[in-house]
Amino acid sequence: MFAVSIVPRTTSCRLSSAFLCQLSIPLTLRLHHHYQHHQPHLPSPLSFQIHSLRKQIDMAAQGGDSYEEALAALSSLITKRSRADKSNKEDRFELVFDYLKLLDLEEDILKMNVIHVAGTKGKGSTCTFTESIIRNYGFRTGLFTSPHLIDVRERFRLDGVDISEEKFLGYFWWCYNRLKERTNEEIPMPTYFRFLALLAFKIFAAEEVDAAILEVGLGGKFDATNAVQKPVVCGISSLGYDHMEILGDTLGKIAGEKAGIFKLGVPAFTVPQPDEAMRVLEEKASETEVNLEVVQPLTARLLSGQKLGLDGEHQYVNAGLAVSLASIWLQQIGKLEVPSRTQMSILPEKFIKGLATASLQGRAQVVPDQYTESRTSGDLVFYLDGAHSPESMEACAKWFSVAVKGDNQSGSSGHLVNGSAGSSHDKWSNETCEQILLFNCMSVRDPNLLLPHLKNMCAKYGVNFKKALFVPNMSVYHKVGTAADLPENDPQVDLSWQFTLQKVWESLVQSERDGEKDGESNGNSEVFTSLPMAIKCLRDTVHESSSATRFQVLVTGSLHLVGDVLRLIRK
Fold first, then answer.
1. Binding-site annotation, residues
2. Per CATH, is 65-78+88-357 categorized as 3.40.1190.10?
3. Which of 1, 130, 488, 535 is deepest in the core (most CB within 10 A)?
């Protein structure tokens, strides 16, 4: 038998013939006398495939514009409906199965060895740890997470690396064009996240990954990733109050939605949860004959002196869940003998390496500003965490407080992540450091819940913000873009939400002043019309500082904001 692929006539096409073979195209312009793991799926009718392939090659051959065109096409799938619209919850979930049929992915998804993870906070980190462990055992992995911070390709990792632009374009246009031609009024084009989930299924099937690790986008029961009917194992990370306008206003209702990923007889793990949430998870597990096991946080002893690749004490909770998920997968699919946690004094070497080398942008990430380091005697360091729920705000505040104190005592920023150059200063005392908050959150979230948790936890650790800056996000929710097309400033921007955030912050500061005699807290805050203006102000402040001061900026409240900051400071 022969595997087939096509060599397009045009020389400007950016897709290689080897890659086009993975798109399962039944044309015999070139025959490879190799037959790999299984016969490529050969969709029909042939005429449609030829037409679809030609369109795909034409799109991919357009050079530098094709990626921008793909992002524009993807943006067209974003609905203008408010996040608080309750119809977002179910929204004809059955359509997902129609799309899988149109893309001929029904059989592929049944064969996929999936680890499925839902939760309010920590699910992305859990997925990242899990993928890293399995990859360190030599298995081919696919990881689907959300949201992306800078580039949409971050959502699709193959063997721990973001999918290449070439592969992304090929798979994107294959799915998009096929759906565009086969959908109709009854079965319309999928919405943004559903398309991305379908794209992940296509990528992982074509790339023949051994393990597909899927992070739920929102909720669980009606999430597009829940099209997987027989995962290997499911996980529920820490639950809390978020997306209440869609998932419900109690922990019980939220837990019920998350437990929607439970499948008949499929093992599941969760972490310690509030009583109300745990009761519902146990009820749902019983209904679906799921053996639900509660996993305790990992301990430092099990890591044999190594540190987790993702910083923060809360990551030990996520790492513990990841170890259990990876263990089940390795036992059932990898056919490996993995001892249980109770039998181990330390984790197996490959587990430790996987946990220590895991990486995920925007979660407890520290980035020194190289622009100021090379130009001033002062120092500007960004501490980025996309926390956006009350519980994650507390975890973020605790991480930030411990991190800034540790950085100040260690005397140099050279140890900070991302391989950034260290500061030229040998030592920073607490007296020469100032903490600044850079904040924004979506308007569906309650700042009266978020900001007090953040401020009070920092104060508990002796960290008080010298100033708070409130900015609108640069990226917009109705368009998928790149760093190149971010606006520097928008004179028409509506800042009413930012002024609301400032008002909440000032009221917290005022009440603190009323209760304190020493007046240590500083209520200095400001609203900026754009993020670039806020970054410029911070850099100017460092430059104009008369003394060598380290400015430590906590960026939080929104993963979109974190992504925008990363785009700007890495330009």
1. 146, 215, 243, 363, 385
2. yes
3. 130
